[in-house]
Design a protein that fits this description.
The complex is a heterodimer of chains A (397) and B (241). By secondary structure, chain A is of the alpha+beta class. Chain A has twelve helices and twelve strands. Helix content of chain A is 52%, strand content 17%. In chain A, strand 3 and strand 4 form a beta hairpin. By secondary structure, chain B is of the alpha/beta class. Chain B has a single domain, classed as P-loop containing nucleotide triphosphate hydrolases (Rossmann fold). Chain B contains six helices and ten strands. Classes of the chains: A alpha+beta (397), B alpha/beta (241). The interface between A and B is medium-sized, with 27 and 32 residues.
Chain lengths: 397, 241
């Protein structure tokens, strides 16, 4: 039996292929949106996985350094190390900054880390890790910084000694790692003008500068310029100890907040990107509906364009099932071309997105199934139109 | 009705009636049509617009159900109690060939496949159907255009392909709806020559609905239809070779 759908598609080859490609762009956008979501999740997981920590110790009552402001004294790690089960510790600070480099503003998350301690990037793609306590930096490749570049932050200039990858904040900003002491000053120490202004204000405040007690003002001023805080202490749990139990111990005895890797993943991936995920899901729904509408419209117009032929086919004894099958095959063909071209374009353009776009086979499979389902459903309008054609229309009068 | 009594008519219509609508707005398109066409005979059906020609053709073509009377095609009463859509579809596919004013070929099939599709729909294997189609195209003198797409065929070639399509299942009956209307005299007579030849060769009963003055003298018998009733008269039966 002649494949009527195949012949019709060949007959309208150009229009059919271009429609399929147009649909493919939409499906490509759909796949990319799914990839953006996957990228968000993967970025969050990479940030946690690549920190090398099992436990995040943070200010009590906060969700930790990525989700909420958290400040701890930078000597908290000493008391933590005394707890059984604590292997390594690392003070960390996180701060989003805009860096001017090569006549370009680059938004980065500056992470203060201790060399070779939890929090420092585990993998480098080039260069070496930070080994000095000052003025060295490791940058994520997405910053665009090169090894040997000089980067000026608020107070100091840093030399990029290594390049890492897949280290971005939950907001998608690439990370710039610097020594924690420098990061503390960059984050907590204000500029000279602000310090002078504060000193004048403190000196005029009689409660902080009581007459006849000269040591008070000096102590207060000293406290104003100190940088003794960090955002969190990252802990590597010693072998044989359960991070969950250790988190419980820290919370109970140190009056601090503590999150295991799973809990931190939950905060970063589930809670923080929940709104973005819903946003993306809405886009996916809209794109799916638009795709369905386009397929339905195209198939409908293709059907309307051959009403007389359908009437003749029915008059000469073609079964309704044969006609319905022809229309559905044409719709499925459009879905298939759309899916294949969409997959290709999404793969081509994904690397050019500023944020990480992760295309996974599972999403491609789902998109294929949805494209086929939507195509089949969209063909129903055309099928209904064809089935309603009266064979008598082929005879004049 | 002038019938050769020894023959069973391929098309027998008795007291056929068709009413559209109900109540005060009802219109009687056919008011007791009688007609008989023998195998191998080509008869003309002539009438002014609105006389009921198309309604009669649709009833004979098993696409509209009459409200009264009887149609017997090739010995089988049509629309008998219990007929289903699929029965009518099979009747149209296997027992009736249609030729239209415009060829109405399927534009995405070539000439051969336009013809071969009909026996394929009836279940004939592809190779056999194509062979039969090629044979019919040869008979109709368009065998050399067998592989051509519809858009590559001239109007006359398309009409001959459509006649081949009507013959594809070797139907005992062909209903032709103004098949020569768009053609000049020469081509119109050529089409009539083909239809007459095929009627003789395959013993097919052919009804040709027409207004075309050029071809009316070629009929040996003519049915005039006026106000939903037919009147038979002898035609000139001019020899067209």
């Amino acid at each position: 039996m002649i494949n009527l759908a195949g012949r019709d598609i060949r007959h309208h080859g150009g229009r059919y292929i271009f429609t399929g490609l147009g649909l493919g762009l939409l499906i490509g956008v759909t796949l990319t949106m799914a990839g953006v979501y996957r990228g968000l999740v993967d970025d969050g997981k990479a940030l946690i996985d690549n920190s090398g920590a099992d436990l995040w110790v943070v200010q009590q009552g906060t969700l930790g350094p990525y989700a909420e402001p958290s400040a701890l004294h930078d000597d908290v790690y000493r008391s933590l190390r005394a707890l059984p089960g604590v292997g390594e510790t690392g003070n960390v600070t996180y701060q989003t900054m805009q860096v001017r480099h090569a006549n370009k503003d680059v938004r980065v998350m500056v992470a203060g880390v201790e060399p070779d301690a939890p929090g420092a990037p585990l993998y480098l793609v080039s260069g070496r890790p930070i080994i000095r306590n000052h003025y060295e930096a490791v940058a994520d490749v997405k910053t665009g910084f090169k090894q040997g570049d000089k980067i000026k932050l608020r107070h100091y200039e840093y030399t990029v000694v290594g390049i890492t990858r897949r280290m971005v904040s939950s907001g998608g900003d690439p990370m710039l790692f610097i020594p924690v002491q420098d990061a503390q000053e960059e984050q907590f120490v204000r500029d000279a003008d602000a310090i002078v202004s504060d000193r004048q204000r403190l000196a005029q405040n009689p409660r902080l500068n009581p007459p006849g007690v000269p040591g008070v003002l000096a102590a207060v001023q000293e406290n104003q310029v100190s940088s003794r805080s960090v955002n969190a202490v990252l802990v590597k749990v010693a072998k044989g100890y359960d991070p969950k139990n250790l988190a419980g111990t820290v919370k109970r005895w140190k009056r601090l907040g503590a999150y295991t890797k799973d809990e931190m993943t939950d905060i970063l991936v589930v809670k923080m990107i929940a709104v973005s995920a819903r946003q993306i899901f809405m886009f996916l729904v809209i794109l799916t509906v638009v795709s369905a509408a386009i397929i339905a419209f195209i198939i409908y117009t293709m059907t309307i364009g051959k009403i007389r032929e359908i009437a003749v086919l029915k008059l000469v004894g073609t079964r309704n099932l044969t006609l319905a099958s022809m229309i559905m095959q044409e719709a499925l063909g459009l879905g298939l071309i759309g899916f294949m071209s969409g997959k290709v374009v999404a793969t081509i353009w994904a690397p050019y997105f500023p944020k990480y776009v992760l295309l996974v086979p599972q999403d491609a499979l789902s998109a294929f199934a949805v494209a086929m389902l939507v195509s089949a459903l969209a063909s129903l309008l055309g099928i209904r139109t064809a089935l309603k054609v009266d064979p008598a229309e082929a005879i004049g009068g | 009705m002038t019938l050769t009594q020894t023959q069973t008519p391929a098309i027998l219509v008795e007291g056929l009636m068709k009413r559209y609508g109900t109540g005060g707005t009802a219109v009687d398109a056919l008011k007791g049509v009688d007609m008989a066409v023998n195998p191998g005979e080509v008869v003309g059906l002539i009438g002014p617009s609105g006389s009921g020609k198309s309604t009669l053709l649709k009833a004979l073509g098993a696409v509209i159900e009459p409200t009264g009377g009887k149609i017997t095609l090739d010995g089988n009463p049509v629309y008998d109690h219990g007929w289903k859509i699929k029965d009518l579809r099979a009747l149209r596919r296997d027992r009736i060939g249609f030729v239209f004013q415009a060829p109405y070929l399927i534009p995405f099939l070539n000439a051969t496949d336009n013809v071969a599709l009909i026996p394929m729909l009836a279940g004939m294997p592809d190779a056999g159907a194509r062979q039969r189609a090629l044979g019919l195209l040869q008979v109709l003198d368009v065998g050399h255009r067998a592989a051509a797409q519809v858009s590559e065929l001239s109007g006359g070639e398309q009409q001959r392909v459509s006649i081949a399509r009507a013959l594809a299942n070797h139907p005992p009956i062909i209903l032709a709806d103004e098949p020569t209307a768009p053609l000049d005299s020469q081509r119109a007579l050529a089409v009539m020559r083909i239809l007459n030849g095929l009627a003789k060769q395959y013993q097919t009963a052919i009804i040709v609905v027409t207004h075309d003055e050029k071809i009316i003298p070629t009929f040996k018998r003519i049915y005039h239809i006026r106000d939903g009733k037919t009147y038979e008269e002898a035609g000139e039966g001019r020899d067209i070779g």
